[in-house]
Design a protein that fits this description.
- The protein is of the alpha+beta class.
- The chain has one domain (27-216): NADH Oxidase, CATH 3.40.109.
- Helix content is 40%, strand content 11%.
- It contains eight helices and five strands.
- The chain has helices at 12-23, 37-48, 67-89, 107-114, 152-171, 185-191, 220-223, 237-256, and strands at residues 59-64, 126-133, 175-176, 179-180, 197-206.
- Strands 1, 2, 3, 4 and 5 form a five-stranded antiparallel β-sheet that branches.
- α2 (37-48) packs antiparallel against α5 (152-171) and α3 (67-89) runs antiparallel to α6.
- It is globular.
- The chain starts with 11 loop residues before the first helix and ends in a 7-residue tail after the last helix.
- The relative contact order is 0.19.
- The structure holds flavin mononucleotide.
- The site of flavin mononucleotide (FMN) has 8 residues, from β4.
Length: 263
């Protein structure tokens, strides 16, 4: 059994919300044109209202508009973040590497060519850096931090805040992107972030420089189970790898027609 409700059962609010969450997409090419300060406040306000474990609200935000700070962040991204990702990717099967870091021939020689990949976000007029304060987890039950739970209450809360902020940006007609920071220390130094806090990700916002393209998701029939887990839907390792091959097959051509330096 698939649908629990008939297809016409909905509300205007849901339809409006659906339009919003299906319109949101990662915009990796933003125009440098300024965005109104009030828009930035509205995005921050959405993040403030996110769910968090025991309402511990572990988030703080740095709004970066200063070009000099942006430049330093991009330098850290190229020197440390991309360097780390690139060499990690070279350890994988060639066809399964992230397309931006697939190189042919000698990897060390090719590194210079691809090191500035994924840096278009530096052109965004505003960057919102999402910070997390792990001490706020003290507000929740101790069990949330033990036996394999690690920092999940912290990162889950930050992801919730981020989702609302990305949606708020979309609702204001802005584009946004999720820039993962894998090696945080250099970025924390640039921004003067205290040691105890973490950088969750950087959320660049601005008006989009690209046209909307349709994006895809796995169908509900594949990912939803009713009452108990449907073993027929369980994917073997081989099937998961097949999914990855298919995913890469779709994104590789797009990456390989872009000049180096573009995300
Ligand atoms: C945890 C997480 C990490 C991500 N890291 C990056 C990133 O470092 N760079 C990037 O361009 N996109 C990043 N993304 C965006 C995803 O690539 C994107 O959401 C996904 O491909 C679906 O595309 P869409 O956002 O356009 O719908 C990240 C998203 C999430 C949730």
């Amino acid at each position: 059994m698939m649908a629990k409700t008939d297809d016409t059962t909905t509300t205007p609010e849901y339809e409006q919300f659906r339009e919003l969450f299906t319109r949101r997409m990662s915009i990796r090419d933003l125009r440098p044109d300024p965005v109104p300060d009030a828009y930035v406040d509205r995005i921050l306000e959405a993040g403030r209202w996110a769910m968090s474990g025991a309402n511990s609200q572990p988030w703080e935000f740095i709004v970066v508009r200063d070009d000099a700070v942006k430049r330093e962040l991009i330098e850290a991204y190229v020197d440390v973040n991309n360097d780390f990702i690139f060499w990690m990717e070279q350890m994988r099967l060639a066809e399964l590497r992230h397309p931006a870091f697939q190189v042919e021939g000698d990897a060390a020689e090719q590194w210079e060519r691809v090191r500035t990949r994924h840096t278009a976000w530096g052109k965004a007029p505003v960057l919102i850096v999402i910070l997390g304060d792990g001490r706020r987890q003290w507000g929740t039950v101790l069990g949330a931090m033990t036996f394999g739970r690690h920092q999940s209450h912290l990162t889950d809360a930050l992801s919730n805040a981020a989702t609302l902020m990305h949606l708020a940006a979309t609702s204001l007609g802005l584009g946004s992107q999720h820039v993962t920071i894998h090696v945080q220390e250099p970025f924390k130094r640039v921004l003067g972030v205290p040691d105890l806090l973490m950088i969750h990700h950087i959320l660049p916002i601005g008006f989009s420089a690209i046209d909307r393209r349709p994006t895809v998701r796995r169908p509900l029939g594949e990912i939803v189970h009713y009452d108990r887990y449907d073993q027929d839907k369980y994917m073997s390792n081989r099937q998961v790898l097949g999914f990855l091959h298919e995913l890469r097959g779709r994104t590789m051509p797009a990456y390989h027609t872009r000049p180096a330096g573009e995300a």
